Every structure is written in C-alpha cells, then in structure tokens.
Amino acid sequence: MAIKSIYGCIGCGTCKLTCPTDVIQLKPNGKAYIAYPEDCQICHLCRLYCPVDAITISPDKSIPVVVSWG
Ligand code: SF4
Ligand code: SF4
Fold first, then answer.
1. Cβ(9) to ligand 1 under 6 A?
2. N or C: which end of the chain has fewer CB within 10 A?
C-alpha cells in the first residue's frame, strides 16, 4: 500500500479531484476514504493539496517497481 491513512478529513473533496488514479472516493457524508489503495502511484498530490494535512503516504508499495533495460 502507498496511501496509508486519512485522519481528520473535513470533507472538502480536493483529494478526490486531485488523485490521477481515483484511489480516493467520498462517502455520502463527504468524507474521503481510500477506495483503491493498490492503484496509488505515490505522487503525493492528495497530501500536498489537503488543506488540513489529513493524508499520510507510506513509501512502501506492495508491488515492486520493475525496471528493465538493455
Ligand atoms: S499519492 Fe497520488 S496516486 Fe496516491 S492516492 Fe494520493 S493523489 Fe492518488
Ligand atoms: S483533501 Fe483532505 S480534507 Fe479534503 S476531502 Fe481529502 S482528506 Fe478530506
């Protein structure tokens, strides 16, 4: 997992609009939740744009990055 937790969300919806891979969705009450953690690209946009610093990103990723060359 890359995006780790959302705590203290005020329901502004910015992170849902910001995430390029739709990892974050909003509950009926407007609060954000992590819907598709496996799709997180660790771009940190959601964290940077959250006005209350509610999002924690872990550097870990469950699927190792594959690099091929040569
Ligand atoms: S770090 Fe990037 S890809 Fe991951 S949930 Fe946040 S905006 Fe989406
Ligand atoms: S940007 Fe922050 S406050 Fe706004 S919905 Fe997302 S987690 Fe909640």
1. no
2. C
The structural domains of the chain, with segments of one domain joined by +, span: 3-57
Secondary structure of residue 24 in the 3-state scheme:
strand
Q: What is the pTM of this model?
A: 0.84
Do you know the residue count of the chain? 70
Burial of 59 (0-12, 13-18, 19+ CB in 10 A): exposed
3-57 is a CATH 3.40.50.620 domain: no
Q: Phi and psi dihedrals of 51, rounded to 5?
A: -70, -15
Atom of ligand 1 nearest to the CA of 24: 5
pLDDT tens-place string over residues 14-41: 999 999 999 999 999 999 999 999 999 9
